[in-house]
Design a protein that fits this description.
The structure holds 2 protein chains of 2 kinds. By secondary structure, chain A is α+β, with helices and mostly antiparallel strands. Chain A folds into 3 domains: 7-308, no CATH class; 320-398 and 405-415, no CATH class; 431-488, Arc Repressor Mutant, subunit A (Orthogonal Bundle). Chain A has 16 helices and 14 strands. In chain A, strand 11 (228-233), helix 4 (236-255) and strand 12 (263-268) form a beta-alpha-beta unit. Chain B is globular, with a radius of gyration of 21 Å. In chain B, strand 2 (77-81), helix 4 and strand 3 (119-124) form a beta-alpha-beta unit. Chain B is an alpha/beta fold. Chain B has 15 helices and 11 strands. In chain B, helix 2 packs antiparallel against helix 3 (50-65) and helix 9 (306-321) packs across helix 12. Chain B has one domain (10-307, 376-476): Amidase signature (AS) enzymes. Chain B has helices at 10-18, 24-42, 50-65, 108-115, 158-165, 182-188, 222-232, 275-290, 306-321, 339-350, 353-366, 372-395, 418-422, 429-434, 463-476, and strands spanning 45-48, 77-81, 119-124, 171-175, 191-194, 215-219, 262-266, 294-298, 398-402, 438-445, 451-457. In chain B, strands 1-3-2-4-6-5-10-11-9-7-8 form an 11-stranded mixed sheet, sandwiched between helices. Classes of the chains: A alpha+beta, B alpha/beta.
């Protein structure tokens, strides 16, 4: 989770405060679309998962997908929202990727309202105004012209496979005060969405898309500044950079005597700048009105509580469970590792390994570093195999370096650690062999050994290094250290 | 074949076909021949689907040959308003914007009618997107009244009404948003029904105003209308607004008479009707009274506001429903320099003046800053109307009113004056706003010897009583002496 530093921005903003609210669009992990039976699948041939309903053909009508409602309720409960009766509205605007030229969304009465999300590190509560259900649009690809935008494009291609995919839009209050907080919020939200089973949380596939409302104000001021909305931030990195840039841009404008114009802006990842898409004067009037083709959504209390009982452990609970394996780690590097591991959904791996007898700290570290760095292959790693690896490392059968190498190969291949270690020739040194190596080192460096024996601990490294060298890296540093110390005594 | 089936009821034809006295193919050929010979003058059909009709008829005959029962509408020719989507058969809404569109699916009502053995002859004319009361707003030329080719058949389902009145088919399907089945039924001297909202699936009905639209039957007698409604009614999982629960039995009690039923004549809907329409209504009330019903006048005050509320709600929904005709995916596309120009050019060329007028009205009514004053207030009026009817139905089983304030008017008489055209629906609109059922039953002739229709209104799912009263009214009604244009 190491991202590029934003400290320069914090410095720049001295005397200023940024105010950020986020709208996160989350694709729900249903089998079918929101209003029809077409498959909800990513990466299909364009325009193959379509029917009269999601194409909005004349005469077709929407019918709500019950599973989508259930997943939306899970999100609401996980975000501490009030889940209640809701209705659908039509949001009218013309665009080629909108089959009906209106989007079915929730406007006045959303299914989930008034919740909050607690940031894991600062424990700050970010208010959730609403988390409502809506349908996704199709996907437009502009061919030719300026950087894939419609302006100046020669022609545009539309894929309606995405049209009608169920979304929940999660709208936060303007409670975030820095780019770091915004990233922490999205990261935690993503963990919650994944843990609740509502979404796969894949930002790179567009399962999570973030719009950021950014404004700035003088430190201590209670008034909000004029805000700009930055559309479609598709990674945590873009999110952090775009917010930092935008706040900086607004401060510069104000400090040079200009004003911030309320507008929608586009983030250009390559150039690292936001540019205006449209201003408020040309903003759409969406002419919302209640969707007459759908009836109000009235989930019974029984159903809601049944759904609640089916939600698994949420990230906060998962962090608590991991924390309980250690003593006093409410903050610090171990807690950071816990946040990382839970954020990536690797906590079951660690808990399982520990339950199987593995050392908690080592299991956590290997998960937070080596496994986290290789998430693509994470599915290859079983809890058992991971636990065995950690135990082999703790027992000195593998050195730290060897353990990392073995873990890497395990992630790629799915093999057991013993198999991988054997194939790499990583069998641990026999105690007798190790003792023989130590004898050899003592005989070649008698003076140093005398000093070490009389208590000069700074020579530990020297001797370990010598033994390691003779063993051609097969010895475990910790085991060697222990052996040297016991020999000295 | 012994006798001609032209002019026979749906019941009679189905009985003959099921008892092998006539084949569905013979019935179909006979009706198609009449349409081809005579519809040039009437323009009730936009398209005759001869091949599909003969294939359906053949399927019915094959079932009968195998000893199977094709259903209650075995071999009965049916005409379909061209806003009902038909798989592989062009469906235009009488609009240039959908001129060449062939839907990839069938409306639920089409599937149900076919499953009952009905044979669809083709698609009938309408006011473009069902917006109008005379069928003059069709972009493929107006339909004429089969009793007087100089007069309109009413609308918007004028093609279906004229086809059934002209005996081109014993039954037809139309759609009714503010009176579009009942008013043309009245003007053409036939029976037309607007069912309870949700009784018939709207899946495959091209939307005009979704909260008001309802598909319903046309027939030349009350029992045929009940039969067709019985076939097409029922829950459809493709339509969220379709009602669950059992479909009311519309036929069992239909001959049981009106003895003891309480019938109220709505005073607000008598004001301003033509003298002969007023007289016919009195006569209808007397007839029902003579058959044992308790008939009284009553006031349903809120219906006065129906027209104003309707002309905000219907255009508002239409402005959104018709947004999809943008030239991007199907239908007419007129290329412009960029996306916006293409939208504008396609819609400018594709839509007629009345459709554009309503899109603009509706867009305005929904605009930010105007929503509460227009759309919001119209919805409150709608609630008032529902309350007003609820009170009325505490004291009455069904209500009575004229269907249309006048008999059929001349072509062009109201075409230049949208407001006077809108007023033709003043008696029919309140039921749509309430979501209730209503039926128009022919009741003799009025001005210019043109047919008059009497409307029977019932509470939600009150169709069985409504048909019982309609049948009683039909028994006592004076006949239409005037000849059809081809007779």
């Amino acid at each position: 989770m190491v991202e590029d530093s934003l400290s320069s921005n914090a410095e720049f903003l001295s005397g200023w405060e940024m105010v950020v609210g986020l709208e996160v669009h989350c694709e729900l992990k249903t089998r079918t679309k929101l209003f029809c039976g077409c498959m909800n699948a990513f990466g299909q041939e364009p325009n193959t998962s379509i029917c009269p309903v999601c194409l909005g053909l004349p005469g077709s009508l929407p019918v709500i997908n019950e599973h989508a409602v259930e997943l939306a309720i899970r999100i609401g409960l996980a975000l501490n929202c009030r889940v209640d009766e809701s209705i659908f509205h039509r949001k009218n605007y013309f665009y080629p990727d909108m089959p009906k030229d209106y989007q079915i969304s929730q406007y006045e009465k959303a299914i989930n309202e008034n919740g909050y999300l607690e940031l894991p590190l600062s424990k700050k509560r970010v208010r959730i105004e609403r988390a409502h259900i809506e349908e996704d649009t199709g996907k437009t690809t502009h061919v030719g012209g300026d950087g894939g935008r419609i302006h100046g494009a020669v022609h545009s291609l539309v894929d309606y496979n995405r049209a009608g995919i169920p979304l929940v839009e999660i709208v936060s209050a303007p409670d975030l005060r820095s780019a770091e907080e915004a990233r922490e919020y999205v990261s935690e939200l993503r963990s919650i969405l994944v843990a609740s089973g509502a979404s796969d949380g894949k930002m790179e596939e567009g399962s999570l898309r973030v719009d950021a409302n950014v404004s700035v104000r003088r430190s201590g001021s209670r008034e909000f500044g004029t805000r700009c909305e930055i559309k479609n931030l598709n990674s945590l990195r873009s999110l952090g950079r775009a917010i930092a840039y935008e706040a900086e841009r607004q401060v510069e404008l104000i400090e040079s005597g200009q004003v911030v114009v309320q507008q929608t802006r586009h983030w250009n990842e390559d150039q690292g700048v936001t540019t205006a898409m449209r201003s408020k004067e040309e903003a759409y009037d969406y002419r919302y009105f209640p969707e007459p083709d759908l009836v109000p959504l009235c989930p019974s209390k029984e159903w809601v509580s049944e759904i609640g009982s089916r939600i698994g452990l949420l990230p906060a609970d998962r962090r608590k469970r991991l924390t309980s394996l250690f003593e006093g780690v409410e903050s610090g590097s171990t807690f950071d590792q816990i946040v990382t591991v839970v954020g990536l959904g690797l906590d079951e791996l660690v808990v399982g390994a520990v339950e199987g007898g593995a050392d908690p700290r080592l299991a956590l570290a290997r998960a937070a570093n080596e496994v986290a760095a290789n998430m693509v292959n994470q599915a290859n790693l079983s809890v058992e195999a991971f636990g065995e690896l950690i135990k082999m490392e703790s027992a000195g059968q593998l050195s730290a370096t060897q353990a990392k190498t073995v873990l890497g190969k395990m992630l790629e291949s799915g093999y057991r650690p013993q198999e991988v270690a054997a194939s790499l020739g990583f069998e641990a040194l026999d105690t007798a062999v190790l003792e023989a190596l130590i004898d050899q080192v003592i005989s070649t460096s008698p003076k140093e050994w005398e000093r070490f024996s009389s208590g000069e601990d700074q020579l530990t490294g020297f001797f370990v290094g010598q033994v390691m060298k003779l063993s051609k890296g097969r010895a475990d540093g910790k085991v060697v250290t222990a052996a040297l110390h016991s020999r000295r005594a | 074949m012994t006798a001609s089936t032209i002019g026979m009821s749906a019941f009679e034809i189905a009985t003959l076909v099921r008892s092998k006295q006539v084949s569905a193919a013979e019935v179909t050929h006979e009706h198609l021949a009449l349409v081809k010979a005579r519809d040039g003058d009437l323009n009730s059909f936009l398209q005759i689907s001869e091949e599909a009709a003969l294939a359906s008829a053949k399927a019915v005959d094959e079932m009968i040959a195998k000893g199977e029962d094709p259903g209650a509408l075995a071999g009965v020719p049916i005409a379909l308003k061209d806003n009902l989507v038909t798989r592989g058969i062009s469906t235009t809404c009488a609009s240039q914007i959908l001129k060449a569109w062939k839907p990839p699916y069938d409306a639920t009502v089409i599937l149900k009618a076919r499953a009952a053995g009905a044979v669809a002859l083709g698609k009938t004319n309408l006011d473009e997107f069902a917006m109008g009361s005379s069928t003059e707003n069709s972009s493929f030329g107006p339909t004429r009244n089969p009793y007087d080719l100089g007069r309109v058949p009413g609308g918007s389902s004028g093609g279906s009404a004229a086809a059934v009145a002209a005996k081109f088919a014993p039954i037809a399907l139309g759609s009714d948003t503010g009176g579009s089945i009942r008013q043309p039924a009245a003007l053409c001297g036939i029976v037309g029904v607007k069912p309870t909202y949700g009784l018939v699936s709207r899946y495959g009905l091209i939307a005009f105003a979704s909260s008001l639209d309802q598909i319903g039957p046309f027939a030349r007698n009350v029992k045929d209308a009940a039969l067709l409604l019985q076939v097409i009614a029922g829950h459809d999982r493709m339509d969220s607004t379709s009602l669950g629960g059992p479909v009311p039995d519309l036929l069992s009690d239909i001959e049981n008479g009106v003895e003891g039923l309480r019938i109220g004549v709505i005073e607000e809907l008598i004001d301003g009707v033509s003298p002969m329409v007023g007289t016919a209504l009195d006569s209808a009330a007397n007839s029902l009274s003579a058959q044992g019903a308790q008939v009284e006048h009553l006031s349903v005050p809120a219906v006065k506001y129906g027209l104003s509320a309707y002309y905000l709600i219907a255009p508002a929904e239409a402005s959104s429903n018709l947004a999809r005709y943008d030239g991007v995916r199907y239908g007419l596309r007129v290329e412009g320099q960029d996306m916006n120009e293409t939208y504008v050019a396609s819609r400018t060329k594709g839509f007629g003046p009345e459709v554009k007028r309503r899109i603009m009205l509706g867009t305005f009514a929904l605009s930010s800053g105007y929503y509460d004053a227009y759309y919001g207030r119209a919805q409150r009026v709608r609630t008032m109307i529902i309350d007003s009817f609820r009170k009325a139905y505490e004291s009455f089983d069904v209500l009575l009113s004229p269907t249309s304030p006048t008999t059929a008017f001349e072509l062009g008489a109201k075409a230049a004056d949208p407001l006077s055209m809108y007023l033709s629906d003043v008696c029919t609109i309140p039921t749509n706003l309430a979501g209730h059922p209503a039926i128009s039953v022919p009741y003799g002739e009025g001005e210019n010897e043109m047919p008059i229709g009497v409307q029977i209104l019932a509470p939600a799912l009150g169709e069985a009583n409504m048909f019982k009263v309609a049948r009683a009214l039909e028994r006592g009604a004076p006949l239409i002496a005037k000849k059809l244009f081809w007779e």
